[in-house]
Amino acid sequence: MSKVIFKQYNQGQISLFSSRLDEKIPTNAPVRLVRAISRTGKRNNE
């Protein structure tokens, strides 16, 4: 039977993920261009 290993438990951890996901995306990532184009299209259609 294999040994059970538990991960460290830290109650002082503020959150599991950063408060904003876009903090993890580089400024020159292609997804930012796609987002900018899609937002421009929404403004033109209104």
Alpha-beta classification: mainly alpha
The first-to-last residue Cα distance is 63 Å
Oligomer state equals: single chain
Pattern of helices and strands: H
Taking Cα atoms only, what radius of gyration do you get, to the nearest Å? 20 Å
Assess the beta-strand content as a share of residues: under 5%
Total of DSSP H or I helical runs spanning 4+ residues: 1
Q: Name the poorly predicted regions.
A: none
Helix % is 25-40%
The number of strands is 0
Q: What's the story with the biggest beta sheet?
A: none
**Morphology call:** elongated
- On the 0 to 100 scale, the average pLDDT is 80
What keywords describe this structure?
single chain; 46 residues; mainly alpha; elongated
Q: Could you characterize the architecture of this molecule?
A:
The protein has a domain at 17-46. It is elongated, with a radius of gyration of 20 Å. It is mainly alpha-helical and 46 residues long. It has one helix at residues 30-45. The protein contains 1 helix and no strands.
Brief synopsis:
The protein has 46 residues and is an all-alpha fold.
Ordered list of secondary-structure elements with their pairings:
Layout: H1 30-45
